[in-house]
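Below is just one:
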Amino acid sequence: MPKIPLQQKLDNVVAFIQRYNAQKGFPPSLKDIAKGCNLSRTTAFDYRRRLVEQGRLSYLPRRARSLRVIDPPSNVEHIVERIDT
């Protein structure tokens, strides 16, 4: 199986957060991101850190479900089609 570039993985996480928020009305937890993007919780935490450093996400420390997308990816149609309820 070919390796997916890190930036594409980060784009997938941002797209997942956007879709989750649109469907549920609130941002996902790190556990939700890990499950929805097929990542470990540690990797989800690391990707959140990287996206914050890139200026694409913001969040309030010690505040649950406070993720906010700042710069949405332009190509999200290949990302998670539907969030299971």
Q: What stands out?
A: The CA atoms of residues 12 and 79 lie 6 Å apart. Residues 6-69 form a domain with the Arc Repressor Mutant, subunit A fold (CATH 1.10.10.10).
